[in-house]
Amino acid sequence: MRKFGWISLIASTILLGADRVELVGTHADMNGSTAYAGGNPVMLYQDQIMSAEEMFYDKNTTIVEAKGSVNVFKANQYHVISDYARYDLTNDKRYSKPYYMYDQVGDTWLSTEEAEACGNEIDLSSGAVSGCDSTDPLWKIRFSSANYDTEAMWLNLFNARLVINDFPVFYLPYFGYPTDKTRRSGLLIPSFGWSNAEGFYYQQPIYFAPHNWWDLELRPQIRTSRGEGIYADFRFIDTPSSQGSIRVGYFKEQGAYAEKNDLANIKHYGYDIDYRHSAPLREWFGLDLAGESGLYIDGAWMNDVDYLNLQQSNQMQNVTSTQVMSRINTYYSSEDNYIGAYFKHYQYLNLQSNDRTIQTLPSLHYHRYLENLLDDVLLVNVDAMATHYYRPDGKRAVQGDFTVPLVMQTSLFNEYVDASYTMNASSKVISFYGNPYSEDTGRYEQGMYAKLDHTFALSSTLVRPYESYTHAISPSVSYTAAGTRRYSGYYETFHSNKECVAGNTKPECEFYTLNEPSDTLSLGLNNYLFEDGKQVLADRLSQTFRFDDAGSYYGELQNELEWQIAKAVSFYNQTSYHHDRNRITKEQNSLRYNDGTVITGISHYYTDQLVNNQTAYVSYWTADAAYQYNRNYRFFGSVAYDYRADLMKTSEIGFIYSRRCLDVGLRLVQNRRPILTNANANDSVDDTYIFITIILKPVGGSEFNYKLSSN
User: How far is CA 335 from CA 281, 402, 406, 427, 681, in A?
Assistant: First the structure.
């Protein structure tokens, strides 16, 4: 009788269509149209597996009921546990009570009193969801009701209350989030903050991703005591070989805030463009050329520096500078030739107007790659550059540069020494146009310049292995003899009167870039030390000597050292010494330690150089440290101190507590940021932040900051 029951049951499942229902148990029975399976039976249906203490199947209604320790597995998606489950296989309806689901994709669990499902939609009663251990979760979100789309992988919670260690901390009438990492439209993690000067801060990113080749992120923000604004990022991939992004932003100050802080502008706006294409000629114009082409665009413009300051609540995340450079580079390179065009535009944020700023629009470059002649004894290449220097107010120029080096090389003393001779022929031509500005009434005539120099060089590389070390030394010496010079027009005028020397800021000297001819002797000595094939030390030493009509003088002695003192300890040094001034003019030292538990370092940057015959002295210290106390706690801090100005530029100290399901962090940050005021283009503001970060993994989180500002 039981055997017949199993045969009848399996035969009835075929009536469901292409989907097959299989029920396996240690014992089974039939009672009319109802089949019973006990002894921990298992049902297989589509990509789901169900197990229970006992199951009932009605072949007329195609309803399966499971009782006692019910487990349902859906392939690579979720695992459901309940005491009772009812599945209507024909109508694809399901009911479970109580309901516990572990989401394998999102690594979260969800527990409710009961759940009803139809197709991909699951309606849930009151319960909780969390990404922590279900036995004693660090956090959970309680809700009065919810629904879950298993195809869209999206969970909606109603009357959501965040509970951390059984303590309620936050309430939202509605909260929805994806349970996978699929790219989709929606709200992103918001940012909150409070400032004594700017009031309450709130930024809510809105993300649009309607297609797989572009997306748009809008970031409206409000600062209750300062103003409102919006930033937008548009990202796209227009061809298989290219990608780009465009950012625009606008912020309007409240009149009282702008007046109190004497801001130069009540509105701040600007844009940034970033675009890269590795095959524009082929994909845009259909040119199947043997070489390769490329296009690079990095552009920015803003009416003042607050366009950068207002992009985030934390100004430490913004890189601010007095100079903004925009570039467009494009090129085509074949086996023998290179052709490029470069555009550069400079904007100085500490100037009211950039009409006097010289722009490069554009530079056209041709390069003939190195050709080997006479069995690599003779080498020759060609460089040509045409540059257009443009500005709205003042003289403009078109300059051409041509260089043709001819190199002869050979080996001496059984290839222990490499010897070479270079004959370097180069020339410049320049032509001016446009009107001089009011303070520049001089006329510039066209100019031509040509020179022929000769360089003799000797070098060698010697390697000697030891038991566990290998030492390599590479000495070099070269002598450049200044040969023939020819000047005419503009170059002859300012070469003869020797006005355009270092430090001269006259307008007519802006385009004079020639150095007085001199012979040069260059010495170099490089040392490398390897242990077990890894470099542990590199030292590069160089010294130049110049000889001209005024006599001889030393160039700067320069040394660069990279030293891996131990497995966890490294040291870097760069030093320049000026003989005539008898002082170190530049030095950079950096000492770092990293054993995986402690990561720390200290750096010092120092310069003492002459700029326009004035000493430009800089002394800047930075230090950082991080300590991984255990797998959960990490402490960190950093400082940046301007010794010359006796100013703490930035400082930060904090910790982060990290678990599989939760990150909680606290940081105290101090930062000085530039602003543009009517009184001073180099004004700044001191900010003090307290950041509190809570990340509920994998749901998400946010960061709240409190900021104190003072001029």
Answer: 16, 21, 20, 26, 50
Q: What are phi and psi of 614, to 5 degrees?
A: -115, 140
User: Which region among 130-144, 228-242, 680-694 has the lowest average model confidence (pLDDT)?
Assistant: 680-694
Three-state SS for 200-254 is EEEECCEEEEEECCEEEEEEEEEECCCEEEEEEEEEECCCCCEEEEEEEEEEEEC
The count of residues in the chain is 711
- Give the CATH H-level superfamily of domain 1-97: Lipopolysaccharide (LPS) transport protein A like domain (2.60.450.10)
Phi, psi of 461 (to 5 degrees): -130, 120
- Cβ-contact 476, 541 below 8 angstroms: no
Per 3-state DSSP, what percentage of the chain is helix, strand, and coil (rounded to 5)? 5, 65, 30
What digits encode the pLDDT tens for the residues 87-113? 998 888 999 999 999 988 778 899 999
pLDDT digits (tens, 9 = 90+) for 233-259: 999 999 999 999 999 999 999 999 999
Residue 496, H or E segment: helix 490-496
Distance CA 454, CA 482 (A): 7
The CA distance from 426 to 404, in Å, is 6
Per-domain boundaries in the chain:
1-97
Instruction: Please give the angle made by the CA atoms of 199, 205 and 206, to the nearest 5 degrees.
Output: 140
What gap in Å lies between CA 25 and CA 43, rounded to an integer? 9
Q: Is 370 helix (H, G, I), strand (E, B) or coil?
A: strand
